[in-house]
């Protein structure tokens, strides 16, 4: 009987220790599964956030494409048109240099025995015409640039109006171009500030 009790006690202890091992293993599995579940949930949340960010960027790009160009190029062209129109009124640095060169060429090619009318024409007349020519080129460029800027919306995205300031500056460049071209033609044809008479 004592042996049975000892055996029974031994068996009970072993059974308890086996049960404890099973309980520990079960707790370990539950802990591992909860850790795994939490890491899977964090990974899914991170992937979800990245997907949302990518979708937001794609939508922003699609909206930008749908809206069309921002008008920066048109604004720059309008400013250039106005600047060229202003330069055409004064002739610009290039016109001044070209006129000085024509004056020098006229002095070199005209002899001191030439008539006064010929000397005035060669030394001053050609330089004046050169200044008018360069002013006309600047005015024509301003005119063409202004027309292109104002006509651009007709060939762009429908329903997207041009910014008012772009129109205003383009109209200013166009107007200055017309005035500069008119003055250049009058100067070149000697209708405005013609050479003095030498007779």
Secondary-structure map:
Layout: H1 2-67, H2 72-90, H3 92-109, H4 116-151, H5 164-188
Content-based structural category: mainly alpha
Question: Secondary-structure element order, as H and E?
Answer: HHHHH
- Strand tally: 0
Low-confidence stretches: 1-10
Q: Please summarize the sheet with the most strands.
A: none
**N- and C-termini, Cα separation:** 160 Å
Quaternary state of the chains: single chain
Residue-averaged pLDDT, rounded? 76
Strand content: under 5%
Q: Can you characterise this structure?
A:
The protein is mostly helical and 199 residues long. 82% of the residues lie in helices and 0% in strands. It is built from five helices and no strands. The longest helix is centred in the N-terminal third of the chain and has 66 residues, at 2-67.
């Amino acid at each position: 009987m004592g042996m049975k009790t000892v055996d029974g006690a031994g068996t009970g202890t072993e059974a308890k220790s086996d049960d404890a091992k099973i309980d520990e293993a079960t707790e370990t599995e539950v802990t591992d599964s909860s850790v795994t579940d939490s890491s899977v949930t964090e990974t899914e949340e991170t992937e979800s956030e990245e997907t949302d960010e990518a979708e937001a960027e794609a939508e922003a790009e699609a909206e930008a494409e749908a809206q069309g160009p921002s008008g920066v190029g048109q604004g720059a062209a309008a400013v250039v048109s106005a600047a060229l129109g202003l330069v055409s009124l004064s002739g610009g640095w290039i016109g001044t240099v070209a006129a000085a060169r024509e004056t020098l060429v006229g002095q070199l090619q005209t002899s001191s025995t030439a008539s006064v009318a010929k000397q005035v024409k060669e030394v001053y007349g050609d330089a004046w015409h050169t200044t008018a020519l360069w002013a006309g080129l600047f005015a024509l460029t301003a005119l063409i640039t202004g027309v292109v800027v104002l006509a651009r919306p007709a060939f762009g995205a429908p329903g997207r109006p041009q910014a008012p300031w772009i129109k205003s500056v383009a109209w200013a460049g166009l107007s200055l171009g017309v005035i500069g071209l008119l003055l250049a033609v009058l100067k070149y044809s000697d209708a405005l500030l013609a050479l003095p008479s030498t007779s």
